[in-house]
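PROTOCOL LOG
Step 1. Enter all chains and additional molecules of the complex.
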Amino acid sequence: MAAAADEDFVQLLDPAGNRVEHPDFSYSGSDTDLAASLRDMVLTRRFDAEATALQRKGELGLWPPSLGQEAAQVGSAKAIADTDRIVPSYREHGVAWVRGVDLKALLGVFRGSAMVDYHPDDKNFNLYTWVIGGHLLLSVGLGMAMQRDGRVGGPDPDANSAVITYFGDGATSQGDVNESFVFASSFGAPVVFFCQNNQWAISEPIALQSKIPLYRRAAGFGFPGVRVDGNDVLACEAVTRWALERARRGDGPTLIEAYTYRMGAHTTSDDPTKYRGSDELDAWRAKDPIERVKAYLLRQGTIDQRWLDDLAAESDALGEQWRADCVGLPEPDLAQWWDRVYAETPHALLTQRDDFVAYRASFEEA
Amino acid sequence: MAAAADEDFVQLLDPAGNRVEHPDFSYSGSDTDLAASLRDMVLTRRFDAEATALQRKGELGLWPPSLGQEAAQVGSAKAIADTDRIVPSYREHGVAWVRGVDLKALLGVFRGSAMVDYHPDDKNFNLYTWVIGGHLLLSVGLGMAMQRDGRVGGPDPDANSAVITYFGDGATSQGDVNESFVFASSFGAPVVFFCQNNQWAISEPIALQSKIPLYRRAAGFGFPGVRVDGNDVLACEAVTRWALERARRGDGPTLIEAYTYRMGAHTTSDDPTKYRGSDELDAWRAKDPIERVKAYLLRQGTIDQRWLDDLAAESDALGEQWRADCVGLPEPDLAQWWDRVYAETPHALLTQRDDFVAYRASFEEA
Amino acid sequence: MATMTMVKALNAGLRRALAADPKVLLAGEDIGNLGGVFRVTEGLKAEFGGDRVIDSPLAESGIVGTALGMALGGYRPVVEIQFDGFVFPATNQILTQVARMYHRSHGRVNVPMVIRLPYGGGIGAVEHHSESPEAYFAHTPGLKVVAAATPSDAYWMIQQAITSPDPVVFMEPKRRYHEKGEVDTEAIPMPLHQAKVVKPGKDVTVLAWGGMVRPCLEAAIVAAGEGKDVEVIDLRTISPLDDDTILTSVARTGRAVVVHEAMGTLGVGAEIAARIQERCFYALQAPVLRVTGYDMPYPPNRAEADYLPDLDRVLDAVDRSLAF
Amino acid sequence: MATMTMVKALNAGLRRALAADPKVLLAGEDIGNLGGVFRVTEGLKAEFGGDRVIDSPLAESGIVGTALGMALGGYRPVVEIQFDGFVFPATNQILTQVARMYHRSHGRVNVPMVIRLPYGGGIGAVEHHSESPEAYFAHTPGLKVVAAATPSDAYWMIQQAITSPDPVVFMEPKRRYHEKGEVDTEAIPMPLHQAKVVKPGKDVTVLAWGGMVRPCLEAAIVAAGEGKDVEVIDLRTISPLDDDTILTSVARTGRAVVVHEAMGTLGVGAEIAARIQERCFYALQAPVLRVTGYDMPYPPNRAEADYLPDLDRVLDAVDRSLAF
Ligand SMILES: Cc1ncc(C[n+]2csc(CCOP(=O)(O)OP(=O)(O)O)c2C)c(N)n1
Ligand SMILES: Cc1ncc(C[n+]2csc(CCOP(=O)(O)OP(=O)(O)O)c2C)c(N)n1
Ligand SMILES: [Mg+2]
Ligand SMILES: [Mg+2]
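Step 2. Run joint prediction.
Step 3. Record the structure below.
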């Protein structure tokens, strides 16, 4: 199926770093823009590597690596306007980075020191979330809110907005995801469903979730689906830009299937050697999302070794910073959590908290 | 959309009673078989009318009429083998009748005297059920059980079997229905998803559930969907026969959208004048599933007025019987229900029952 | 002061909320043109438009999940679940998303959302149409749960629930939908999360909510004829429970009977009994008794009169408590 | 007699069930090639084939709903829900279909199905991976709910659950997965729905199950050092509760403490407390106390040590009970 798929999808830069023509889509950026995307991909990969290492050292309890999915994440993120709402799943570190979310805020939840420690309105970037497929419905609702705000399909394109929501191939089997398709279609909600088909849902191959390419699911719900080379940052940006513009214009939802690969483990708790062979990984390594851009831009002369060295230095500095950020995260104090259950905290909860505090203090006295 | 749809679907007998050619489907029965189908449709309509009248008289608490959907139900039911499993929703009175389910058993649940009072294995006809879309998953599971029994795709066609499951247009919005499509597709389960699109889910028009014809949903899950004239008993039988054979052969699921109309109220509690006009009903009356068969068979000379008179007499006799059956249904005794919670009834439940019985008896003594 | 049914009172309360705040939205199956199967939203789509009174596709998880999104987008959605028994497809959204957003966001994001739940038996309905699922929600931190017993409470409580910053499961006893009562639309309502002593008494405290308040009041009248002075409390709020009102009463009477339709095991009565014995141990003259639905799924409706707590069963428990 | 972890014991129990009855099937996410994220089903797909050890699409409602169908088709499916917090998408199937089929069919159709639920905290996990949802299921008639605390019970109880004619929610305490214990694979196991006095005592009864039995036993040892004779009961069965064992013990000790991880309000402890005060009213020397998770969603895991009941909190409650 992968082979057939390869013919089927939107690609603008091939694995060897050659630009490819596509009848419907083209990259609107310059080579300098592309260099910026390359930088974002490299730094995303570094962040991911640092977090993975932090988990190994016991500083994080768990980490879901984005390794291999940098193009899908950075490319799509480049197409998103500040006024668009992003609804991530739990692996969109590259989207967060491009969005300007302080990555430190992503670490607490994996360290176990926080739930999800940022305000979603700060960067219009929703909370990381865990229930597979559970966040797609609220994405549609956010789009319906935009419609009611008059922020969809208005005469001034800059005043319009949309929602982009991220999920995996496995998620497409969830009822909630399909209900999201129903609601988005029915209400023409301005939502881009961005599915990173990284071929695996933990140990389950995509073929278990769908016998046919995932992007075709959309047609059955009455809206377009597109498969894009998820390792091609140009194509991901171009297709996402188109879909977001459709959504903002009031033309309704789109499903984008970014065909990519999870090069690492599902999470640091996972052992992929139990269920997949190294040849598969090797084949995908040859399609690395970063290498092809590097090759292209070096050939173009947009970047050179010096540029790459500078980036490596920046990357090292950020790595150091993230390590320090992580170990410096404040420890959670259970006493704080009683008034994070309700906006209007019932009296009994406060009493329960006070009892807890007194109980805990009794040990300190002793 | 209805107009476009009319061109799109499988029809073998038009509303005027003329046979129509179709490239892919043909009716395999004789005119005598068709007369049998006519009889079943007429008796189904009579049963439905009796039950509706019984509700008016207070003998039933509620009744969901099948009026107008006789062809979809009788036609599909004719294609089902004894060894196939039928999983109905709550409106499939015509399927039950063809199947030979004692219709009395359907009345108790609407009278409030029973839950669902027949054994599903007796006629391979599952329990009527209420949670919209909730029964489709178990249908797929029943198909998976048949696969494991070696009853699917075996060399002897007569030893193979399949599941047919009935649901409405509104149900297609439910997550469970779409998960059923995922599982059936993934496991190639022998399931025919028979959707009676009667244009309404209570007051909600089909357009609220889907902007495109429902049968197309299937393609997005990797299996075929067919729209059939749901008021054409020949076409319904032919398409269902084909789909069941596919399923039994091991070729997997099919979605059939029987395009029909709920001519009555949603249930006897409903008032359709609140949400739809009479012109719509009139238009559909002209496509009545019974009239066209009658016209055709009279023209063919297969039936005559005498045949129709005999049928009317049979219908009256059955009507009388059903009325008597209904009022004669045994009253439920709560005391019986404690050992219908678990196959192995916990001791505490029996004590609770005994306490109840003693408590109730205390009033009789007094 | 007007006399109206609970259905009309809810309709009036919703209308007032829609008029008062353009951010208030309604969503659910059949709530638009039909006005809902109980007509609670009758006329509201015509008055406020289809963008604010939304007929939703037939999917409860979708209804709740998209409403959550609208709440995060600045709206105050009020969703109708058509019947109690059809709330379960939405469980995941309610329990893991709606109830948790405030907690997950460290208190940064609240969810002002109401889930209207016509609930309970006594209406001669088929399976799934007579259930009382409040305990599932009351066991879920992050949700508030209330139940209206009268038209007046329905009118006020729905408006208070809508202005609540927290998600509220709003239980409406179907069997009381068509009973009339006085509604003072100018009154200053009591706080949403406060129980009400609807009949003071000194011998035994009977606790109920929603559809069960009425048989308790009737039992109190009969008991009074027999010289027993029953205090009846309409809890109104199930989560949080109004401990003060409950415990103060029981501390005084020394006896308590909790009445609800849901099955007894792990019904809300269990929590109330557990709290009372924890906090009024020495005051208790008798165990807290529970009069509840039996530990079985809701029976065929021709047997529901035996299943549901009624005047007699409440009286019986009152007598057993007093005789203990 | 062999020494093994609970994971291995479950694996061995499942293997024996699969070998004993060709109708037994397993289904769930990642249970095949991976052997499940906890390796409970490791090697079983290789041994029994993909038709009997089924990797399911990623949809819990689908997993439970199709398993129900297979049960109706004559099989005995055992489904794995990957983590406690991901059972909620399947709520509708579990509550309205699996639990009700026997009732709906007037007792004609039973559903021999097991829903395995790795549950509970103490493992340093992110949200949804540390929850204790047993009360939702125990409040649902038609379901049985059990919890294993030791490898031996895990080994036997899973086999008993599989042979049960009723649907069983089978709770596996993740935090005990890797602790070792003796398993006698030749023993005659005690009945599934019976509680076990794991440490006899005469001063106070402590009731727990699953992951909480261990801190209770530890507390009993410490208490013994202080001259307090604590009886510890491992409930094992949560629905139905084994009233006899519970009430007999409390009638004797006069004091009870219930310990669980789930939030206190409407947790199973509420039901136990309510029953004890109903049935042992005069025997009680002190209110039934509850040591539970606090009334909030599960906190960030670096705060879970404060959230979860532990030896100290159990001891504290024992002391408060004795001092009452
Ligand atoms: C409802 C639910 N069920 C199970 C899980 C456990 N789980 C976490 S990630 C995962 C696989 C997800 O696969 P996919 O959707 O392809 O996303 P990916 O991790 O590959 O990015 C599973 C089963 C979960 N988080 N939520
Ligand atoms: C989960 C669920 N939600 C709501 C209902 C209430 N209800 C009963 S029938 C119905 C409409 C069903 O429409 P459709 O699927 O088209 O079937 P039809 O009744 O038209 O045959 C609704 C909303 C229900 N039974 N189950
Ligand atoms: Mg994936
Ligand atoms: Mg319909």
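Step 4. Note key features.
The CA atoms of residues 178 and 289 of chain C lie 30 Å apart.
Residues 196-323 of chain C form a domain with the Rossmann fold fold (CATH 3.40.50.920).
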